[in-house]
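Exercise 7b. Backbone tokens:
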């Protein structure tokens, strides 16, 4: 498994980074570790960076794990995805499904810095700084 989970105190975030092929087993393991960091550190948001990854899990497995993560986080915790443009169709479907079903703030980004800024700032400050998600 090639993922790392870190706490980013400057941005009040728990960050998950996947590299290479990512199957359903890795998604589940990384989700559990991300949740542990997010809950223990009382973060404002979690970031999932798949910009250097290739997701091999089936869409339903991804959706189930993202929904599971959302259900395990504290109310109000933001969820940001960072991915390559080529991955946006699948990620968009996942983000839309999770956002619609959970009512949680979910943002999709191409740039890591924008995603972290969106987590760190309130909406007005994020907009002023240009940290706006691709899909709201």
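Sequence design result:
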């Amino acid at each position: 498994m090639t993922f790392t989970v870190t706490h980013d105190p400057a941005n009040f975030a728990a960050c998950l980074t996947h590299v290479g092929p990512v199957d359903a087993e890795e998604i589940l393991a990384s989700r559990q570790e991300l949740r542990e960091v997010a809950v223990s550190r009382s973060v404002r948001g979690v970031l999932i960076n798949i910009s250097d990854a290739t997701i091999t899990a089936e869409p339903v497995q991804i959706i189930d794990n993202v929904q599971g993560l959302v259900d395990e986080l504290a109310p109000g915790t933001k969820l940001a995805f960072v991915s390559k443009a080529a991955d946006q169709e699948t990620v968009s479907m996942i983000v839309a499904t999770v956002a619609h079903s959970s009512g949680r703030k979910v943002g999709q980004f191409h740039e890591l810095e924008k995603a972290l800024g969106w987590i760190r700032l309130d909406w007005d400050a994020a907009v002023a700084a240009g940290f706006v998600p691709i899909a709201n």
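Instructor comment: The mean pLDDT is 89. Residues 24-41 form the longest helix (18 residues).
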